[in-house]
Design brief:
Blueprint: H1 2-11, H2 25-38, H3 49-66, H4 75-112
Helix pairs in contact: 3-4
C-alpha cells in the first residue's frame, strides 16, 4: 500500500515536496478580519455554494493584494485555514467553560467543608 502511494507521488511531479505555506500572525489576523468583520454580513443566512464561492474569491483577492510579497494563496487554502481556526476557537471555548465549571465545583466543595 505504501509503495502504491509512493509511486503515485513519483508519477505526479505536482505532488513533489512543495514547501509548506507559512502563516504569520498578521496573515491570520487579516483573514479573520476579512471574514468576521468586512464580509460578516454576506455570510449570514442561506447562501448558495456559488454565492459563498464568490465571497471567498473576493476575500482571497483582498488577502493576496495585502500580502504581495508572498506567493498568492488560493481561495480553498483560505477557507481551510478559516475552518481550522474556527475549530481551534471552539476547542478553546469548550476547554475554558470546562475549567470554569470545575473551578465552580471545587469552590462549592471547599465551601461545604
Amino acid at each position: 500500500m505504501l509503495q502504491a502511494a509512493n509511486l503515485t507521488a513519483a508519477a505526479n511531479p505536482d505532488n513533489a515536496a512543495t514547501p509548506r505555506f507559512k502563516w504569520t500572525d498578521e496573515m491570520v489576523e487579516c483573514l479573520l478580519d476579512l471574514r468576521l468583520n468586512r464580509f460578516k454580513d454576506v455570510f449570514q443566512g442561506s447562501k448558495s455554494n456559488a454565492q459563498i464561492g464568490t465571497y471567498w474569491t473576493k476575500i482571497t483577492l483582498l488577502f493576496n493584494r495585502k500580502f504581495t510579497s508572498t506567493t498568492p494563496v488560493e481561495s480553498q487554502k483560505l477557507r481551510d485555514k478559516y475552518c481550522k481556526l474556527k475549530v481551534q476557537a471552539e476547542e478553546i471555548r469548550t476547554t475554558r467553560e470546562e475549567q470554569a465549571k470545575a473551578r465552580e465545583e471545587q469552590g462549592a466543595i471547599n465551601a461545604a467543608l
